[in-house]
Amino acid sequence: MVDYLIFLAISTSVFALFGLGLNLQWGFTGLINFGHVGFMTLGAYTTILLTLQGVPILIATIVGASVAGLLGLLIGLSTLRLRTDYLAIVTIGVGEVIRLIINNQELPVGDTWVSGAFGVQSYPIPLSTIQPNLLFKMLMIGLLTLLAAITIFVLWRWIRTAQKLLTTDAPRRSSNQQEFLSRLVFGSLLGLLSVAIYISGVISLYNYTPKAGLMLLSLTVLAFVFWRLEIVLKSPWGRVLKAIREDEEVPTALGKYVFWYKLQSLILGGAIAGIAGAFFAWQLSAIYPDNFQPQLTFDCWIMVILGGSGNNIGTLLGAVIFFTYDTLTREFLPKIFTQLNVEQLGAFRIMVIGLILMVIMVWRPQGILGKKEELTLGK
Questions:
Q1: Which of 31, 64, 112, 198 has the fewest CB atoms within 10 Å, i.e. the most exposed one?
Q2: Quick one: which of 264, 271, 187, 276 has its CA closest to 28?
Q3: How far apart are the C-alpha atoms of 111 and 87, rounded to whole Å?
Q4: Where are the beta strands (DSSP E) in the chain?
């Protein structure tokens, strides 16, 4: 159970980070990106290949994120002056082209060149070779405790804010009640899951395992990125992005250079996805081009839509729900439907997640935690 929760924490944090990049581009800026996995692919391969050349992991990760951001710059310069649908077409093509190029090219793996189709293995992973003493273990557990405490506090304040609206905004009482109930239910679930992961993390960090170290690092990076995004999106810069999403002619009339703001959003979202790619590669311990199929992009879209676009906490919730569903169905469906083979079980799992999305779209088209007034699906 402990190992399962550690795996769930790593997977969720990696794809929550991946989703935050997409939510910045689409949820806050209105840019449709169907090739988000291309940013992850560049971030993963750049980081791993540089570390195999002896570059420190931290520097390699920064360079990987920068290369992914550069891809956003190139895509933006060539498409952002065109209609939105052109951006969608270009991004899905670019993401697949990157994967195919890597699959058909030789890559510098250490002192040799290896065909990309053979994949890359045996690369350094953060915190995998250390043998921490008791003091270092206590420091890591202390950091995990701090992250858990901040998470619980943020969730409590988030629920409390919705509760206050029930008494201060009487004209919208019914919608505020629905908002409060949604936050209470899903905030409580996130809080309980945080406590379970915290307990598992403490056990794994005390009896140190490399996966526990990777979990702590991924959660720390996710918390930092989430914190910084929340700050910048509440700043004038973030308000301009929201204005562009709603109607870019309005900020243009106010003298804002809309193209430049869109470009910044695409670059920053791509860089965040590049960091997620590095963690994805570290979690897998060996990467192949087929690990970066377009399906990852659409899984990310499911998470953002499910949780609610334009809401970073919603993106985290969407990632939690998606991976909880994914891991539970992989574990229990074969035991329940013993007459189905592997292919049929896979199709059944996809069918059920599609049905869940249909119900969500009818019940709350803005997503579980999204705001209807910020809905971008109907544009």
A1: 112
A2: 264
A3: 39
A4: 106-109, 112-115, 120-121, 286-287
pLDDT at 345: 79
Close Cβ partners of 27 (under 8 Å, ≥ 6 residues apart): 304, 309, 310, 311, 315, 376
Q: How far from 327 is each of 7, 54, 349, CA to CA, in Å? A: 10, 35, 11
Domain formed by 2-130+208-374, architecture: Orthogonal Bundle (1.10)
Q: How far apart are the first and last CA of the chain?
A: 44
Instruction: Report pTM.
Output: 0.90
% helix, strand, coil for the chain, step of 5: 80, 5, 20
Q: In a 10 Å sphere around its CB, with 0-12 CB exposed, 13-18 middle and 19+ buried, how is residue 166 labelled?
A: middle
- Of 87, 119, 96, 97, the closest CA to residue 106 belongs to 119
- Give the pLDDT score at 377: 45
Q: CB–CB of 96/294 below 8 Å?
A: yes
* Residue-level pLDDT at 379: 46
Residue 165, burial from CB neighbour count under 10 angstroms (0-12, 13-18, 19+): middle
Q: What is the mean pLDDT of each run of 10 residues along the chain (379 residues)?
A: 85 93 92 92 94 92 95 89 77 91 86 84 86 90 92 85 70 69 81 88 90 93 93 92 88 89 94 96 92 91 86 88 81 76 78 79 73 55
Point out which residues pair with 121 in neighbouring strands: 286
